[in-house]
Amino acid sequence: NYEYGYGFQAGLSMELAILNDLFVLNPELYFQAKSFKVNNKFFEDNQETTGKISMKSVSLPVSLQYPIHVGKNKVDAKWVPYVGAGVAVDWLIGVSTDLETDVHGQSRVTTASTEKAQYKSFNFAPILSAGVKGKVKKAEIVAEIRYNFGASTIFDKQTLYDSQ
Fold this sequence. Notes:
By secondary structure, the protein is an all-beta fold. 0% of the residues lie in helices and 66% in strands. Strands 1, 2, 3, 4, 5, 6, 7, 8 and 9 form a nine-stranded antiparallel sheet that branches. It is elongated, with a radius of gyration of 21 Å. The mean pLDDT is 86.
């Protein structure tokens, strides 16, 4: 069983109009910190592992947006809705685990590690998004809903059980 933990993301984003303003290319670069809580039972509930796993990564999402111009004059539109699709590539730069294992009839074992060998160094995720952009004086306000599919597992199946 896993539960979401708190995360943090900071980065840069830019937009490049392409094909006569028909599409917008949106490359981004982010630093991300993510965490999740673990509560797993094994061997017919004779062993229980609980704790927290934290991950730090650099993410490079690239998406292609399609502006949906409403009305006749698309140049002067104050608010422009859009839809987008793309892919994110995440590079794992660090992992921190703080776990405790309780085997009934024995003492608890605490494991704290920064070993990342059992995790994939790179993760790929398709992206779907929808939002609206508005011009306010010399700035632009963007509100977006985005879903990263997380298409691949974060664990490297070849090295999953290498770390003791």
